[in-house]
Sequence to fold (125 residues):
Amino acid sequence: QVQLVESGGGSVQTGGSLRLSCTASGITYSSYCMGWFRQAPGKKREGVAVIDMDGRTWYADSVKGRFSISQDNSRNTLYLLMNSLKPEDTAMFYCAAGLGIGGSCYAADYLYNYWGQGTQVTVSS
Fold:
């Protein structure tokens, strides 16, 4: 049984930092596209950052230069380091695992089969 468990969310002020973690059981990260997604109240879920099987990364324009995705395959843990947080980053953040298409990874949520329960990030001004 596959299980993804996020942690590290919380409340910070504008400009603050958080590091989210996602620990997996039942899958091996190095064989999957791994992504962080977020959903703010009243908005659609959006891709934030993706890392592929070779360690290549993709970021949404809104977080480029501020967020960094990484993974520790030895610990089967995915991370999202978030710096310079803004109130518009407030959302529930989810990690997800999927196989992509033809060996390539994308930030489309329908390509991800496994999801964590989410961790809340709140940024106050």
